[in-house]
Amino acid sequence: xxxxxxxxxxxxxxxxxxxxxxxxxxxxxxxxxxxxxxxxxxxxxxxxxxxxxxxxxxxxxxxxxxxxxxxxxxxxxxxxxxxxxxxxxxxxx
Length: 93
Hints:
By secondary structure, the chain is α+β, with helices and mostly antiparallel strands. It has a single domain (3-91), classed as Glutaredoxin, CATH 3.40.30.10. Helices cover 27% and strands 32% of the residues. The strands form 3 sheets. Strands 1-2 form a two-stranded parallel ribbon. A two-stranded antiparallel sheet has the order 3-4.
């Protein structure tokens, strides 16, 4: 498991430590992975103004890197529930 966002490496490290995450948060300031997975939300209205961010998304890939399940939202405040992700993981070979 990993997370990808546009924030700098240092900020991601702080968030991971604060939330006691046991997976990495990767930094994608140039939107390469974010663009490749088509989750760029241009000019999103956030608390700090309008900026390009990644839409909340979850992708489950198999061992060969094939996307077996995904869920994207249009609202940056909406997240997929952990229960839903675990249910999907249990049915993917």
